[in-house]
Request: fold
Amino acid sequence: MSDPIDSPRPAGDRKAKAVDAQTILDTAADLIESVGVSGFSMRGLADELGVAVTSIYWHVGGRDKLFDSLVDQLLCQMANLPVDGEDAIERIRSLARAQRRVLIDRQHLLAIAHERDRTAALFLPVQQALAELLADLGMTGAKAALVLRALQVHVISSAIMQFSAIRGAHHRHEEDPSLWDDSVPDRELVEALKAPTDYDAVFEYGLDGLVAPLRRSEQPG
Reply:
């Protein structure tokens, strides 16, 4: 006979399976990103896992404890973002891309972190890493702070625009020809603006613009 604490609730053909705390946290994180915080419930998580609700409480505690653990896990992820590149500038670019991807993929967990007043702690490791990379380029003080903030604003605003577009209603203005009349001479521009926005391309273009001065500062003389 299986341990009753891991016995599943009836869920169609879902089979009983043993779970651990990490499996619960990973599944909860994905479920929250799928249905949002308001749509999340411990019973829904139990159904997703194929276990009893009591099993979740046994392993990770109640909803608040679960959310705190998810925020802790997100902080750990942000503090250990993958960074590649042969020089400081390429590592800055890599770090910016990695941070943006987490912000897009874990937007609802970010909201939970914000509600728990942990946003500053969430972004601090990235800011510290950027400060070190800028120092490697000989950039310190107020100038480094300005560049760091510009990079962070670009990453965060790009992520917000992208996940708003993904989660929100379709942007009809991008394909509504009535917004652009025939008086605009650049028809290729008009047609391009009617197409869905490639947010990744826009992000990369902005990132290129931000790091270009850093590349020039490396040049002798």
In short: The two ends are 77 Å apart (CA to CA). The chain has two domains: 4-61, 73-218.
